Amino acid sequence: MKWLDIDPGNCSVQRTLDVIGDRWSVLVLREVFNGVRRFDQIKSHTGISDSVLSDRLRRLVDNEVLHAVEYQETGARRRKEYRLTPAGFDLQPVLLSLLSWGDAHRADPTGPALTMLHDDCGAPVTLELRCAAGHQIENRRDIHAEPGPGARIHE
Fold first, then answer.
1. pLDDT given for residue 147 in this prediction
2. What is the pLDDT of residues 111-131, one digit of tens each?
């Protein structure tokens, strides 16, 4: 079976994009990964409108990427801060891939704005592709797709 024979509507890439596939959702995730978890802080740091931020947070919570935790500062009303769920943490390589691509192809002429470092040793974090047998994949053309158990025939 070839790719064109497979129904793309059952694709995990599409299902992922249904959850995080717009600019604002990815930027909200960037903020949360960097420790910015409160509505007003996310809004201020990204420039996102109240209505769009509310919608993206609701979608990320509904899809179990984030969960809301109530907090209350002295003399203020209860509010929510947003924390990553295990599914949210699993998106870290996705955001790191976007960052890596941007650093390589869209960075400021003076260099990247961020460097991601390993807490234990302080070394920069890099991304690599490996197969399940442990081989590092050097040539990206050495990867191909095959139908999985959820593949459906394209009609």
1. 85
2. 999 999 999 999 999 999 999
**What is the predicted pLDDT for the residue at 134?**
96
Arithmetic mean of pLDDT, 130-152: 91
Full 3-state SS string of the chain? CCHHHECHHHCHHHHHHHHHCCHHHHHHHHHHHCCCCEHHHHHHHHCCCHHHHHHHHHHHHHCCCEEEEEECCCCCCCEEEEEECHHHHCCHHHHHHHHHHHHHHCCECCECCCCCECCCCCCECCCCCECCCCCECCCHHHCCCCCCCCCCECC
Identify any residues that bridge with 84 across adjacent strands, giving them in sequence order: 66
What average pLDDT does this structure show over 2-12?
84
**Rounded Cα distance, 101 and 107, in Å:** 9
The whole-angstrom separation of Cα 124 and Cα 117 is 4
CB 88 within 8 A of CB 61: no
Cα dihedral value 72, 19, 113, 47, nearest 10: -60
